[in-house]
Structure formats: structure tokens, C-alpha cells
Design brief:
Length: 95
């Protein structure tokens, strides 16, 4: 199942708060990518992470994301939602 996770930064934090964990964060993201859970990773215009995961559901995605150092330390959170296949092309073939 494809899951979309969009980072929600915690108000009141500054770059120095994140700095000690950034290398660990990249390392864990790489591990999750190699394991097949992280399929695509991006930053939006606000430098917030946008991740496409492949896993069993939103609860599983939240468990996986909780292993990221920045999440574990309470520095970021994610909004998580299930993605469903687009079925709008069916409209093109209705009589």
C-alpha cells in the first residue's frame, strides 16, 4: 500500500536543534530506503520532507517513521495518509 507522509515541523525550534541528529536521520532514511519502505523522498519549498512509503497501512507507516531520529526526539512529526489509485480514466470509456 502506498502511503504519503508530509513533515510537520514543531513550532519554536531552530536549525541548531536539528543539527546533532541530521547525519543519523540521513542514515536511517537510507536504511528504510534499502529495506523498501521509503520509495520516494523529497523536500517541499519549505524544506519539509515529503515521503512516499510502501507498507501495510498508515499505522505501519507511523511505526516506521517513528524510528527516524528527528521524530524520536520530538523535533518533527508527519501527517500520514493512504494513497489510492486514480480511477478517473474510467470516465473516458463510459458509453
Amino acid at each position: 500500500m502506498k502511503i504519503l507522509a508530509i513533515e510537520c515541523e514543531i513550532e519554536g525550534l531552530e536549525n541548531p536543534d536539528y543539527e546533532p541528529y541530521l547525519k543519523q536521520e540521513a542514515s536511517r532514511a537510507w536504511e528504510l530506503f534499502k529495506l523498501g519502505f521509503f520509495r520516494e523522498m523529497y523536500f517541499n519549498e519549505n524544506q519539509e520532507a515529503v515521503i512516499i512509503l510502501e507498507c501495510c497501512g498508515t499505522t505501519h507507516a507511523e511505526e516506521i517513521l517513528s524510528t527516524l531520529p528527528l521524530v524520536r526526539e520530538g523535533l518533527i512529526a508527519f501527517k500520514v495518509m493512504e494513497l489510492k489509485p486514480y480511477n478517473g480514466f474510467q470516465r473516458l470509456f463510459k458509453a
